[in-house]
Design brief:
The structure is a single chain. The protein is α+β, with helices and mostly antiparallel strands and 165 residues long. It has two domains: 1-41; 53-164, Rieske Iron-sulfur Protein (3-layer Sandwich). Helix content is 29%, strand content 27%. The protein has three helices and ten strands, in the order αβαβββββββββα. Strand 6 and strand 7 (131-133) form a beta hairpin. The longest helix has 31 residues, at 9-39. The radius of gyration is 25 Å and the shape is elongated.
Length: 165
């Protein structure tokens, strides 16, 4: 079988461009089909695309983590800017109760002043260099809360975060 050779300069310029456009169109079509399949054709967010809960694992293990290393800092939930970073603290001896959620910024400042955790403690440093206790952080509005399933599994309810962004 003889190989096709393009002889005119116009054909040598146009055919590769048309081939590239065809390949890009096929890639776009495959991407659209995958997105359509994942979303089920709906424009509404679903548990599959934007879960309303975050599974954190066994309550005993998470309570032990908080006891040993301080509150759990969960940065940037549902945002690329990290405005909705969450701090999860545990108080008391019962791993199935005593879970408290805070936003990772001081109560007297807005989310543009994030905190950094002092490693292994319940202390945080804000954007102004102030050292804060976990209780000085901003409490979340209703809807962001810890959930304990069957006294075994810890989840974080993110409905308020998903609805506000």
């Amino acid at each position: 079988m003889a190989r096709i050779q393009l002889r005119s300069p116009l054909a040598r310029a146009v055919v590769p461009v048309l081939g590239g456009i065809t390949v890009l169109t096929l890639i776009a079509a495959v991407t659209w089909i995958m997105a359509s399949t994942l979303s089920g054709g709906s424009t509404e967010t679903t548990e599959r695309l934007a879960p309303t809960t975050l599974r954190l694992g066994p309550v005993e293990r998470r309570a032990e983590d908080v006891t040993n290393d301080g509150p759990l800092l969960l940065p940037g939930l549902n945002t690329t800017s990290g405005e909705r970073s969450i701090v999860l603290n545990h108080e008391g001896d019962d791993p199935a109760s005593g879970w408290i959620v805070y936003y990772a910024h001081p109560a007297d400042r807005d989310p543009t002043c994030p905190v950094e955790q002092v490693q292994g403690t319940a202390r945080f440093v804000d954007c102004d260099g102030r050292e804060l206790d976990v209780t000085d952080l901003s409490p979340p509005e209703s809807g962001v809360r810890p959930i304990v399933e069957n006294r075994e599994q810890l989840l974080l309810d993110l409905r308020s975060i998903n609805q506000s962004d």
